[in-house]
Specification:
Blueprint: E1 2-5, E2 11-14, E3 19-24, E4 28-32, E5 37-40, H1 44-59, E6 67-69, E7 78-80
Antiparallel strand pairs: 1-2, 3-4, 4-5, 6-7
Length: 90
């Protein structure tokens, strides 16, 4: 969910997953998947930034091993970082 402001200064919270697209005409128009259109005070760039922040907040850190690039040019690869284990310098 992202917080926006209608043109009449009334706060609005919308489900970012249901946004179809955003237009600037010159007002910012958010078109929802349902076809409903909403005019908001925020710019298209601000709407995009809020959607990105929302997605980052719900995604959190992706689980899985952290990777580090090897220094060996003949064997360019990424290796998992394991606590307490150092990479050999051969």
């Amino acid at each position: 969910m992202i917080r926006l402001t209608r043109l009449n200064d009334i706060p609005l919270v919308i489900n970012a997953d249901l946004i179809e697209y955003v237009e600037t005409t010159p007002d910012t128009v958010i078109v929802m998947r349902s076809g409903e259109k909403m005019l908001v005070m925020e710019s298209a760039d601000q709407v995009i930034e809020r959607v990105v922040q929302f997605r980052r907040a719900i995604a959190g850190e992706v689980p899985g091993p952290k990777l580090v690039a090897t220094q060996n040019k003949e064997q360019s690869a990424y290796l998992p970082i394991v606590k307490g284990v150092e990479l050999s310098k051969s």
